[in-house]
Amino acid sequence: xxxxxxxxxxxxxxxxxxxxxxxxxxxxxxxxxxxxxxxxxxxxxxxxxxxxxxxxxxxxxxxxxxxxxxxxxxxxxxxxxxxxxxxxxxxxxxxxxxxxxxxxxxxxxxxxxxxxxxxxxxxxxxxxxxxxxxxxxxxxxxxxxxxxxxxxxxxxxxxxxxxxxxxxxxxxxxxxxxxxxxxxxxxxxxxxxxxxxxxxxxxxx
Length: 205
What we know:
Radius of gyration: 23 Å
Strand order of the largest sheet: 1-2-3-4-5
Structural class: alpha+beta
Oligomer: single chain
Number of strands: 5
Largest sheet: 5 strands, antiparallel
Helix content: 25-40%
Order of helices and strands: HHEEEHEE
Strand content: 15-25%
């Protein structure tokens, strides 16, 4: 009888060790999810600010080069990783339509990576553009409508960074992408953030 009890007690140790490993993996996974959410939120602020400011310029001028320059300016102002607009020289604004965007103008985008931050600016933004769809898993999608304005009414900004998480490293993924984008409408400065495609800011008074 005592022999059997001794064997049972010894079997508990491996079970406890396995449970500890599982708990550590769960904790690392939760920390990673929180870190990615914080990173995405910070990136969303940059994308929203740049798209909104550039959309106001589009409403005044429809000059693609100026729209691009203003978007770059607000990316630099709002990103903690980018010190000045000069660091965004990889985005070539000269390739954007100038002096004025028209209904026949094709979507144009330019991008660069600075200090681990990927930035992409698009103007005009076509109805079928990837900027018009959600990047969030499970978020509803919807086709462009009259409320979204035309392609020349919209400016898109994408921001992506990579989060080096604890859990991702354990399962062989070195980094987790925090990829967001925003599209702003020049007519009402309506904003479509990539977190929820159907959520829009009310029109400005």
